[in-house]
Structures are given as structure tokens and as C-alpha cells.
Amino acid sequence: MGVARAGSDLRPAARRFIHLRGAASDGQRKTTTYSAFSLLRHGLTHEKWQRAWREHEVASAYDAVIVGAGVHGLATAYYLAANHNMRRVAVVDKGYVGGGGSGRNTAILRSNYLTPEGVRFYDRSMTLYSTLAADLNFNVMFAKRGHLTLAHNDGSLRTMRWRAEVNKLQGVESEVIAPEEVKRLVPFMDISSHTRYPILGALYHPPGGIIRHDAVNWGYARAADALGVHIHQGTEVLSIGVVDGKVTGVTTNRGEISSPIVVNCTAGWASLVSSLAGVSLPIITHPLQAAVTEPVRMFLGAVVVSGSLHVYVSQTDRGELVFGASTDPYPSYSMRGSLAFTEELASHVLELMPSIAKMRVLRQWAGLCDLTPDFSPIMGTTPVEGFLVDVGWGTYGFKAGPAAGEAMAELVATGKTPELISSFGLSRFGDGLLVGERGAAAVGH
Amino acid sequence: MIRIPCPHCGPRNSDEFSYIGEEKRRPGPDTSPTEWRTYLYSKSNPAGWTTEQWFHAAGCGKFIVAERHTVTNEVRATRPKPRFERSNAGAEAGGGSS
Amino acid sequence: MPTSTRRGNGSVAEPVARSPIAPAGPTGTRGAWEVSSAHSKAALRLADMTALSKVLVRGAPGEVAPLLCEHLRARREDGSLIVGTGPDSWLVLAPTGRSDAVSEMIASRLRGCTSLVTVIDVTHGSVVLRLSGESARRALEKVCAIDLSDRATPNGSSFRSRVAAVVSTVVRDDVDGDPSYLIVSDRSSGQFLFDALADAGQEFGIGLTGYPEQEI
């Protein structure tokens, strides 16, 4: 880990022990460590499991208030406590932990982006994700399956070559491969030339994979709680206090909180929360629909993405196929699914993998995506002092959670924007310094 | 799927339309780069009623203005987008020809 | 081998124009077009009418509509069919080989207009299909989301929407009291649209028929 903290030279388990001891010595409860032994003990004694995180009364003041208890908000709180010893921190959410974009995404992790800034940033997230289970003492089920982005035309193939070179320069494993190689990785794929969208090649990203998104949210919540962070679910921010251009705190449905720092870590409601502080964002909110099939035996190793067909597919460890599509074609805060979506998605998936025609869709849902003009996020300071944003995560927020949380925590604690996220500030739109990720951000916007 | 009452064609599925964007006033040619970028990028993105432009691509082929609620997706009013007025000075009278 | 270019000024013995839709059954020529000469007596019939002349008119609604046709309506006139395809666009369908004459006629009628008017021959850019018979409405309803009831779309009405996902102009144009629809779309979508309609009509015993004597 690149971040200095107490005991960073020790094995993860020992590090955890120190954290937990620290939490306990602050006059708080000691959080149980999950292990094979504790599992066995619980199995034998039927002892009640300890709650993963606690309920608290809302205090009248915190050193920082984070709005949004998704992966970004919880990771920011966790790294504030773990890396910077800031523990008087509250995470408030009008819903429940991981109920927004963090629980609605398709849980794909990758770092094969298009701009050097983007690749560096997302790769930091991949690094944090790969040791996250040990760091949080929570099984987040990260599976490095390999990630394939298919090219169906010369234009996509060209962009993929470009991406592969940018990736390699940043030390990220990424290569353009031929259709035969695609077939070897995913034998069910139709690579013949007579299809409507023939596969001309693919961008292969071996470190890419999938993760259990709920486990990531819960793991961060539990670890942050163990370090003394207050997680307030069902706590809606109604207004944000700003006096003389400085944040003074927030008013919630559970009372007023004074705080010199308020971080907007919401997705889907980023514009609305920011407007409470009088900050206007270049964001437009679109729903994005996804669906999951009944579980079948494991047959799809890699994550398969097709930009031209607007679809991405992966198979979970439970055996379900998870499908995601492009965002709905008009902005909306409605999270209702539509038949048109299911029909289109099914036809595109069958175009790629005709053999799964008999599989049944179990359920479908939608999440909200805050799209920015350049398909890159907005992280950092705003014209209102003390009001920070970690927003605009479009369709790429979940995979960025750890790196964004780590960087935002550093910004809150030190007051300086870390170099890793310096290109992603809100001021870039006024300055005309966009970080164009349209070619790699997601599936056909 | 939502239903949009096209002022020219009557009620139609939204998939016949392309979403264009929020109605806003385009700044004049003497604007500063900052103002121009604000016009380009800034969005009100409200959760509620908003006035926006749609293009009826698979219908009459006209731009329309719609008032839509972004939470319920109800469209309460539509009207034709005012036609771009061009000068007829140079147009040949009865300029039709095959 | 037949070509699609006009040769010299003389009459043409072999066809110079073809529909993008593969002809059903035996073929013959009509004017310069190769057309299907199949004849179906099925209760529901689908015909490729692409050989018709097609002329597109654009102009200001207020000036042109009173002279041609209202939007969402179609009007028969001198052996041609004038369709209001949009507030400011019209499509005129006429027997094969008549596009120059129709264009002249429209242009002269609109000569008094002060707004910009364009008249363009789009004969070779689009396809026309005719779906006729008792169950034409039920077949078309399977691939089109518009209300096809007599109340919403009576004989003589027209609209532009998607038919089997293809953007098309649909005209309700009954023939001797027999329900019938003309469907006009881009030439490149022709074969797909034809196949999709033939497929939709399968359960009603659809028959593929040729280019009729009475063209429009």
C-alpha cells in the first residue's frame, strides 16, 4: 500500500488487530474479527453474530460529514479514519448502506481506460481492491476473470489499439487480441463472419474482473464503524449551511449537524445535493438498466463487453448472468425498468451468444448515472470552502470507490488535492481542460 | 418507455424521439469563453418539472418543446419549437423545381 | 444483363430499375421496372409497389397544405395519391414512369408560394408496400404501435411511425371497401420490412401478390 499508516510494515492481519485495538481503546466496542475459527465457533455455539455496524444518535458536531453511504462515502470515511486518524466523521444517507448506485451496478472492475489520468486513477483502485478483503477483514469476492471489450468495426478496433498502448505505458496489462483468441477465452461466442456484428477483435484486460458489490459496501461500513465513524442511515440532508462562502454544516431530518467539511459522495442525486450548497454541476442524470438471469453452471469465464451492441455480460460466482446496457436515452430520476430495454438487451446478448436463448431473466432494475460532458468524474474542491464533491460517476463509479475514497480522505485531512485526482476538478469545465473518456468509459452513451 | 404527445402527430412512444436537451438561451457571439463553457456544460438537472427539446425522428421530423417531470416521466405539455425564420428576400418566387 | 442506367432516348426493352425486394414468383416488366407478376387470391395479401413514382414536396405548412393535403391525411387526385407525411412535407404517389410529369404539375401548382418549396423525385430512394385484406389491420398491429382503429385512423388517414422498427409512412387506403395500407420506407430497409410484414401475416394466411393493373 502506498499510504503510510501505523503498522503498514506488518502483515494485514496484524495491521487489522492494531486498528481494532485502537477502536476498542477509544471506549468503543471491539469488533469481532472474521476468521475460519470464528465461523466454526459460531457454527457450534449458535452464538448471535455481532452486528456489522452500529446505530448512533446523531451528534451535534463532526469534523466531517459525508453525504451518501455508498462505496464512495464509506471508503472516504474509512480512509479518513484509517489513514489520517480522523474519526469524528459521520456518513449520512437518506436510504440505507449501499442502496444507490453502489448496490445497482454490475460489479465489473477494470482499469483499461483511454486517458493516462484515467488509467492511473482506476489502476490505483484495482490495487486497493486486490487487497481489500484482507484490509477490511471482509470477503469481497474479487475474481480476476479477465475483461474483453469486443470490436465490431474498424473504428472500435482503432480505439482499442490506442487504449492498449495508453494502458501499457501506465503499466496496465492490456492487449488487442484476434477473434480466435476470443473464442479460446469464451468458447460460446459466435465469432463467425456472417453475424450482423462480426467480432473483428477485442481489447483483452487480464486483471479485470468482478466483485460482490454489497460485500464491498458492507466491508467498508463495518471497518469504518470499527474505527469510530458514525453511519446514519435514513438521514436525509435537507439543507447545507453556507456562511460567507464557507460550509457550516447540514440540516437533516434527524437534526442539525455542524461541520467544517461536507463531502458530496452521492450518485444520482449529485446535482440536487450540490445545489443545496449553491454549487451548480455540469451533470445530467440518466437511468441505466441491468438484468440478471437464473443461475446456471459456470460457463462464462471472462467479462464480455460490446460497445456497438450496448451490452456487457458477466457470470457471478452464484452462476447468474448479469447484463448491463447503455443508459436510458433521456435524463430521468425514475428507476423503473422497461420492456423495450429487456427486448433490446436480450436481442443483443443473443447476437453474441446464441446458445443461451433458453435462459430466463430473473429480475431487472435501474440505477441512476450522473453523466458529465467528458465521461470523467468530478472530484475535489468547489467555490464553497469546505464543500467537496466526489460525483459525476456516470457508469464507472463502483470500480473507482477505493481510490476515490482514499484520495478524497487525503484532500479532507490535508486540505491539498492529491496529484492522482488533480485533473478531475470541477474547474476543468470552466478552464476547458476536459478529460475525454467517452471512448472507454462505458458502453455506448 | 414514456408517452409524449407530439403537437403534430398525437401521442407517441418516446422511442420515436431523440432527446435533445434542456431549453436554454444560447449566448451571443461576443460572449466570453467562460460564459460559453457555462452554456455548454452547465445543467440544471432538476428532479421535477423541466422544459426540454425533443426531436421526433421517427415521426414528423420536427423539433418540439416538452414539459416533463423527471421523476414520474409525465409529459404535461408540448408545443412546436418555433420555426427558424429565414429571410425570403433571396428566394425565387415559387422556387419549386424537380 | 439488365442494368439500372437509362440507355439513350429510345424505349427500353429490358428493365432498368428493380425494387430492392426479391420479386415473388414470375416477373414481368411495367414501364422501366421489373415487377412480380404473381397473383394471390389469399384473404390477406402483400404486394411490392416500389415501381410507383414518388415525389417528395417540402414547403411552409400554411401555404402548401391548402394546395396539396393536410398533415395526417391522404387525398386522391387525378390518378395519384397525395399524402401529408409531416407538417411541412408531402409525398405524392403516382403510376410508374410519371414522376417527371407529377413533379411538373406540383411545381406549377405551388408557383405562387412565397416560401421556399422543394419538389424532389424520390422514386429510387424508397420502397412502397401494400398490405390488403380483411385482417390487414390485425397483421399491421403486430408490428406497429399506432392505434389502427377506424376511429383513430380511418380510410384516407396517414401517419409516420415505426413499422417493425423501420421508420415508415403508413397510409390507410382501402381498395373497394377492402381494408388496405400503403407502407413507404427507405429503400435500404425494403427487404427487411417486406419479410417482417410477410411474417406478421403468416397466422392470417398471407399471400404474396404481384404489381397490380390498377397501380394507385
Task: Describe what this molecule looks like in 3D.
Chain A is an alpha/beta fold and 445 residues long. Chain A folds into 2 domains: 59-139 and 213-283 and 374-441, FAD/NAD(P)-binding domain, CATH 3.50.50.60; 147-210 and 285-371, D-Amino Acid Oxidase, subunit A, domain 2 (D-Amino Acid Oxidase, Chain A, domain 2). Chain A is built from 14 helices and 19 strands. An 8-stranded mixed sheet of chain A has the order 5-6-4-14-15-16-13-17, with helices on both faces. Chain A has a 6-stranded mixed sheet with strand order 8-2-1-12-19-18, sandwiched between helices. Residues 1-27 of chain A have low confidence and may be disordered. Chain B has a single domain (3-80), classed as Folate-binding superfamily (Folate-binding fold, 2-Layer Sandwich). In chain B, 9% of the residues lie in helices and 34% in strands. Residues 85-98 of chain B have low confidence and may be disordered. With 216 residues, chain C is α+β, with helices and mostly antiparallel strands. Chain C has 2 domains: 42-50 and 125-208, Probable tRNA modification gtpase trme, domain 1 (Gyrase A, domain 2); 53-124, 2-Layer Sandwich (Alpha-Beta Plaits), CATH 3.30.70.1400. At the B-C interface, loops of B face helix 2, strand 9 and strand 11 of C.
Features:
heterotrimer, B: 98 residues, mainly beta, Folate-binding fold, 4-stranded antiparallel beta sheet, two-stranded antiparallel ribbon, 1 helix, 34% strand, globular, disordered C terminus, C: 216 residues, alpha+beta, Gyrase A, domain 2, Alpha-Beta Plaits, 2 domains, 6-stranded mixed beta sheet, 14 strands, disordered N terminus
